[in-house]
């Protein structure tokens, strides 16, 4: 009797326990359903952010120590850990970590003993994609030099400006066909007059005042130079200068610190790339994407990269299949070229699983996936000199990144209202900027703080200041002006809309309209010129167009202008279209009006002004007829 009575509480407890358990399970299920409905990316966002934060904490710890573990230190560490692993595959040849380490040691000894470089010197480097680009880069870094990567398309007139801005006193020229010694003839005397020594990666030189490196490398020691030369005590120390076309004309030397290099080197890792992956790098190494993210990311992981001298749409997939490529770098235009290639039965026969890059249009994105299979395309948004990065780790088509309340706490950015006609942010009655609502397009600004510093440009504080907006929301604050119009939807996805200011992007390069304007202004029959970019159906970015006024008493000469732009402008910066006007429209602040010109485009049936198009066959600017216009729209005429 007592036993039966004693069992009753036990049964009751069991019933209560089951009830609580059922309620708990039901609660978990409800929370899970609500999370899937209203916060579908919560766990993926959280895991990604925790990964990024963990790496950020690691970098912050460097501030508490007396030394910084740099990307170069990581490379040397990998060369000791995996010396025989392929680091670079180039033109059919394999270069191990030991190979690049040994050759960069030889170069470091040459730089010390023969070139007489010292720690702290700045050296300008002009080379095409090749293994020796890395060897020279690492060799210079080992002796404590900062390196200025020169765009190999640079014209001699801009070259002197680049040296003045970064303070380089030595130039190393590659053996390729880009910035050759022959192309330096016009400025070589000026360089020598400024006590700038010129070295070439050759065994012999036709110029008596240009010295050679290859013959000296062969007899140099491969012993490491003293580690104290490359040692660094601050993350904010400059390690590279990468030239970028901004809104102020001539190329600007963006300061790349060890902090920026280390952040970029973790990009592949953040997207889930591992040391077992093989990266394909067809982008130029003088750009930050290939050098900082591509090479830096390969080094950080201890992986292998296939370095391409120049992108080839016809060779791309064969290269990927041949070398078992699993990850590739891209710009949007590159993917469009691949989609335009003839279809084959083996389009989906490859091991590529991830693409990392920027500027991929939605239509090209979808076509690329349908054509080449389920490849995760990871868009990265950020400029070389900028202090903000967005990463589309979800892979949602048409977006450049993700944001949420945690990201906003870490990285202060805002989208503000922008007046496209006046070409300036909209201000309230107190003179402060106004934030846009979710889903609306606004100018992206990123707050400058200790966590997100802006290092600016070398050579001029004025150039750095021009990229900043002050007193944006409160007195005394400062924001980096990205110059990009963006929108953030209700789910936290960020989309790129357009660029503002005096820069547009064509053929994967940023074009500064003020620099092009200055070059065109040297032509005798041009009185005034206004350069801008126009959208061309089927093409990424915007093509260059120039509205101009012909000087009274003179006539327009298409052949003469053609010869001028061919001589003084790289291919991507040459205006493809011209518009002859009687007068220039100006804004209320006496700036050239671009908005209406951009909107009206280059359609001869709607534009009443005479239009011309660049014609390489006739070597002239010829009248843009309706038939030519239609052939451009149909993709029949190559731009």
Written overview of the protein:
The structure is a single chain. With 639 residues, this protein is α/β, with parallel strands linked by helices. Among the domains are: 96-257, Rossmann fold, CATH 3.40.50; 403-499, Luciferase, domain 3, CATH 2.30.38.10; 503-633, GMP Synthetase, Chain A, domain 3, CATH 3.30.300. 34% of the residues lie in helices and 23% in strands. The strands form six sheets. It has an eight-stranded mixed beta sheet with strand order 2-1-11-10-12-13-14-15. Strands 7-6-5-3-4-8-9 form a seven-stranded mixed beta sheet, with helices on both faces. Strands 16, 17, 20, 21, 22 and 23 form a six-stranded antiparallel beta sheet that branches. The model is unreliable at 1-6 (pLDDT under 50).
Question: Which fold name fills CATH's third level, the topology of the domain at 96-257?
Answer: Rossmann fold
CATH architecture of the domain at 96-257: 3-Layer(aba) Sandwich
Low-pLDDT runs: 1-6
Shape: globular
Structural class: alpha/beta
The total strand number stands at 30
Bin the strand percentage: 15-25%
Mean pLDDT: 89
């Amino acid at each position: 009797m007592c036993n039966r009575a004693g069992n009753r509480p036990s049964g009751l407890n069991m019933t209560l326990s089951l009830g609580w358990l059922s309620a708990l399970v039901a609660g978990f299920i409800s929370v899970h359903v609500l999370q899937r409905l209203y916060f579908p990316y919560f766990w993926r966002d959280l895991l990604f952010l925790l990964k990024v934060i963990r790496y950020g904490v690691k970098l912050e710890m460097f501030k508490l120590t007396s030394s910084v573990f740099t990307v170069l230190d990581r490379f040397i560490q990998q060369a000791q850990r995996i010396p025989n692993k392929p680091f670079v595959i180039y033109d059919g040849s394999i270069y191990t970590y030991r190979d690049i380490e040994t050759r960069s040691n030889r170069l470091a000894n040459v730089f010390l003993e023969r070139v007489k470089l010292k720690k702290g010197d700045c050296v300008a480097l002009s080379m095409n994609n090749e293994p020796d680009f890395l060897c020279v880069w690492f060799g210079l870094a080992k002796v404590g030099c900062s390196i200025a990567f020169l765009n190999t398309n640079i014209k001699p007139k801009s070259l002197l400006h680049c040296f003045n801005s970064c303070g380089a006193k030595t130039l190393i020229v590659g053996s390729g066909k880009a910035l050759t010694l022959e192309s330096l003839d016009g400025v070589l005397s000026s360089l020598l007059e400024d006590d700038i020594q010129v070295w070439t990666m050759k065994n012999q030189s036709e110029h008596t005042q240009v010295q050679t490196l290859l013959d000296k490398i062969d007899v140099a020691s491969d012993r490491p130079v003293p580690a104290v030369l490359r040692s660094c005590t601050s993350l904010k120390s400059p390690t590279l200068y990468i030239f970028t076309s901004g809104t102020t004309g001539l190329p600007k030397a963006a300061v790349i610190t060890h902090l920026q290099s280390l952040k970029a080197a973790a990009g592949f890792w953040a997207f889930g790339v591992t040391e077992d992956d093989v990266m394909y790098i067809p982008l130029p190494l003088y750009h930050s994407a290939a050098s900082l993210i591509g090479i830096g990311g390969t080094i950080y992981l201890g992986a292998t990269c296939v370095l391409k001298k120049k992108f080839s749409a016809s060779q791309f997939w064969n290269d990927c299949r041949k070398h078992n490529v699993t990850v590739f770098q891209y710009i949007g235009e590159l993917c469009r070229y691949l989609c335009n290639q003839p279809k084959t039965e083996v389009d989906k026969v490859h091991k590529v699983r991830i693409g990392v890059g920027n500027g991929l249009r939605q239509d090209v994105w979808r076509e690329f996936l349908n054509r080449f299979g389920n490849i995760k395309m990871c868009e990265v948004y950020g400029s070389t000199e900028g202090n903000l990065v967005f990463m589309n780790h979800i892979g949602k088509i048409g977006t450049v990144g993700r944001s949420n309340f945690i990201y906003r706490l870490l990285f202060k950015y805002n989208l503000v209202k922008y007046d496209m006609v006046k070409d300036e942010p909209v201000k309230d009655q107190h003179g402060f900027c106004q934030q846009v609502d979710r889903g609306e397009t606004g100018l992206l600004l990123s707050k400058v703080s200790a966590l997100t510093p802006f290092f600016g440009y070398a050579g001029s504080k004025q150039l750095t200041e021009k990229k900043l907006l002050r007193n944006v929301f409160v007195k005394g604050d400062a924001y980096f002006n990205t110059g990009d119009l963006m929108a953030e939807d209700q789910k936290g996805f960020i989309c790129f809309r357009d660029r503002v200011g005096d820069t547009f992007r064509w053929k994967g390069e940023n074009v500064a309209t003020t620099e092009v304007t200055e070059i065109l202004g040297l032509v005798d029959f041009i009185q005034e010129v206004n350069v801008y970019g126009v959208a061309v159906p089927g093409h990424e970015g915007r093509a260059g167009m120039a509205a101009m006024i012909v000087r009274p008493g003179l006539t327009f000469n298409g052949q003469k202008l053609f010869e001028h732009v061919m001589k003084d402008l790289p291919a991507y910066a040459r205006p493809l279209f011209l518009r002859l006007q009687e007068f220039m429209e100006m804004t209320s602040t006496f700036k050239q009006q671009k908005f209406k010109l951009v909107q009206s485009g280059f359609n001869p049936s709607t534009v009443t002004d005479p239009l011309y198009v660049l014609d390489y066959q006739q070597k002239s600017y010829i009248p843009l007829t309706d038939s030519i216009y239609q052939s451009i729209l149909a993709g029949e005429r190559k731009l």
